[in-house]
Amino acid sequence: MTRIGVLGGSFNPVHVGHVMLASYLAQYAGLDQVWLMLSPRNPLKEADGLADDNHRLAMLQVAAGDCEHIKVCDIELSMPRPSYTINTLDRLKKDYPDKQFSLIIGSDNWQIFDRWRDSDRIIADYGVIVYPRPGYDVVIGDVDGVRFVDAPVVNLSSTFIREGIALGNDMDAFLPKGVNDYIIKHNLYKK
Fold first, then answer.
1. How many domains is the chain built from?
2. Neighbours of 145 (CB within 10 A)
3. Is 32 within the bounds of a domain?
4. Model pTM greater than 0.85?
5. Domain membership of residue 107 as a residue range
6. Whole-angstrom Cα distance, residue 119 to residue 58?
7. Which of 28, 86, 122, 145 is the most buried (most CB within 10 A)?
8. What DSSP designation does 40 have?
9. Contact status, residue 60 vs residue 36, Cβ threshold 8 Å
10. Which of helix, strand or coil describes residue 5?
């Protein structure tokens, strides 16, 4: 059975830290692939400043390129909003019965994971892989279905990228190849 790690997010925009993490997890965490799952709107975050779904999806596709271990999944764009991870995982399991899905989250989200809808069932039915995020200590304890992967920490955020673009700074080094060109072409994140 193919083991898929699901790394969800708004990817507003996707940056090199996202791609580095996905590549690391696909190669070192016992996964066959990592699917970058575009979320139309996180129910725990404000939607202000969110680029159009189609633009964020296109940037993800540019970022994933031809990498065999990283795929883009847009299933949440066709699901009711706000999107909840448990519903997405259940849908993926139904649509891809030959694949085994695990959720990938950062230590920042692990600290509030008990607020996620059906968090216990996510752990029991799918499993959770937690990676470190700057400023968020990881305390997992002995929880069946949850494991910590000591992935390299990249202190980079989409907020930093958006703010840099708004200031007119060159953000090309912080973005996967081709994503900066896409942002410029479509005049995204300008104030």
1. 1
2. 14
3. yes
4. yes
5. 2-155
6. 30
7. 122
8. S
9. yes
10. strand
